[in-house]
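Table S2 (continued). Query chain:
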Amino acid sequence: MWSICKKELRQFFSSLTGYIAIIIFLLLNGLFLFVFNKSNILDDGYASMDRFFELAPWILLLLVPAVTMRLVADEVKSGTIELLQTRPLSNWQIITGKFFAALTVVVIAVLPTIIYVLSLNGLAATGTSLDAGGIMGSYIGLFFLCAAFTAVGLCCSSFTNNAVVAFLLSGFVCFVLYFGFSSLSQLSQLKSGADYYIEKIGIDFHYRSVSRGVIDSRDVVYFISAVFLFLIITQKRLAKKY
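Corresponding output:
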């Protein structure tokens, strides 16, 4: 598994694609948070990272599919997936190796945003500071969100040999899982009580729950289950195809 992980990391950072994806993620965050008017956190009048954690899922909808789109699609297109099958590795080891490699790249992209926390803390008025507990919980929620999106992206990449199609499919599925259920729960026909349970199916509900700074075991189980579900689908897909 770790040999696959290291291979994917070397391949990702051996070209400009990996660096460009990370740079664009950080650039978009920086522009929205410190330059553009309506989302500028400096205009709020108080030190808070709430804008960043509200914006991050939207940008991850671009970053994660860009990272995962080639993981299986390119292997199938080039025929190297068959070479991987000849190695003493199970499909599950290949999949988890690729998953952890992609997740590592996404985490590397997110880590520099800690600079935002340090900058805001330095700009805060004397005697005040950021809510460290809330920010820590939000970053934990962001990590779980990255893991879920990465599993979805890997799964989508296994359904096609075209990286562009994998990118679009992954972005669409992640969008539906994150925003679709919460939007569906807003329908007036579902206000009799079903709206709450429909909203709980979506990732957004659990991400916001963890971001409050309280780590609920139900939210952790939800994210872990979502990751394993899509990894199992990927494994079944490869087992059926090869």
